[in-house]
Amino acid sequence: MLKDTKIAIIGCGNLGTSIVNGLLELEGFQPQHLHVTKRNPSSLFYLQDKGIRVHSDNLIAAKEADLVILGVKPFNVNAILREIKPVLDPEKQVVVSLATGVTLDEMFEVLDPKTTAFRAMPNIAAEIGESVTCITARNNKEEAEVKVKALFESIGFSITIDENLMEAATVLGACGIAYVLRFIRAMIQGGIQIGFDAKTASTIVNQTVKGAAELMIQKNMHPEEAIDKVTTPKGCTIVGLNEMEHQGFSAAMVRGVLASYEKIEKT
């Protein structure tokens, strides 16, 4: 689907680089069709060896692209849109913003009203091709959506949602990675306290978390259904779970999710 699609990633930082790596893994994708820009592009020059066009000229990148991806910070989105608007063709090109909290309404303060525009929220697991990316669009066309979904499925999995859920998606999908990592760290610390060295504890916990996630995905189970399979009467699992709940584990997690969401809403 992206074989002949020309793509520009403007403001190619860590997330943009992850997308580049995903695109390079796609069968038939032509690296010479990809522009990546950065104010100081020297850190991206290694990509030139793969045939990718690396430079700092956003106008050239946008003019030659079918998909224009904005990887810049939220406060720079509309400035970049104003910069590239003179070369954008609203009938042919698609604009995709990766910026947290910048609404489509805000983007269309600059964009031509006929432009097909997307917001997308991947997470850092894009680096290993395991991101979940939530996307939403305005003036959507079937061909454009197919291409945008193909782009983000090169770095994991994508799902289409209503725009009013994009901030919530940021919390669950992007902030959520940090929540899970904090849980993993705590599990490892507990493992060390009961006798394991840090490396062994990390190996056990990482695989346990991975296995739990795969169980939910492959069996399409509710977490409580799986928990019931692990807990036995008077067993050590239910004792541990009950102690965590007494200490406010689930409530703390929910409060953390809500606090992150409220922060985005106020920004």
From TrEMBL:
Broad enzyme group: oxidoreductase
Keyword tags: Amino-acid biosynthesis, Cytoplasm, NADP, Oxidoreductase, Proline biosynthesis
InterPro entries recorded: 6-PGluconate_DH-like_C_sf, NAD(P)-bd_dom_sf, P5C_Rdtase_cat_N, P5CR_dimer, Pyrroline-COOH_reductase
Record's signal peptide: none
SUPFAM superfamilies reported in the protein's UniProt record: 6-phosphogluconate dehydrogenase C-terminal domain-like, NAD(P)-binding Rossmann-fold domains
This protein's record includes keyword Amino-acid biosynthesis: yes
Residues binding NADP(+), per UniProt: I10, G11, C12, G13, N14, L15
Catalytic reactions on record: L-proline + NADP(+) = (S)-1-pyrroline-5-carboxylate + NADPH + 2 H(+); L-proline + NAD(+) = (S)-1-pyrroline-5-carboxylate + NADH + 2 H(+)
Domain Pyrroline-5-carboxylate reductase catalytic N-terminal: 6-100
CC per GO annotation: cytoplasm
Residues reported in the UniProt entry to bind NADPH: N58
Pathway in which the depicted protein is active: Amino-acid biosynthesis; L-proline biosynthesis; L-proline from L-glutamate 5-semialdehyde: step 1/1
EC number, UniProt record: 1.5.1.2
Residue ranges annotated for the Pyrroline-5-carboxylate reductase dimerisation domain, each copy included: 163-265
Presence of keyword Amino-acid biosynthesis: yes
A molecular function GO annotation: pyrroline-5-carboxylate reductase activity
Subcellular location: Cytoplasm
GO BP, sorted A to Z: L-proline biosynthetic process
UniProt superkingdom: Bacteria
Function: Catalyzes the reduction of 1-pyrroline-5-carboxylate (PCA) to L-proline.
UniProt similarity note: Belongs to the pyrroline-5-carboxylate reductase family.
HAMAP family xrefs: P5C_reductase
Protein name from the UniProt record: Pyrroline-5-carboxylate reductase
Record organism: Cecembia rubra
Lineage of the species this protein comes from: Bacteria, Pseudomonadati, Bacteroidota, Cytophagia, Cytophagales
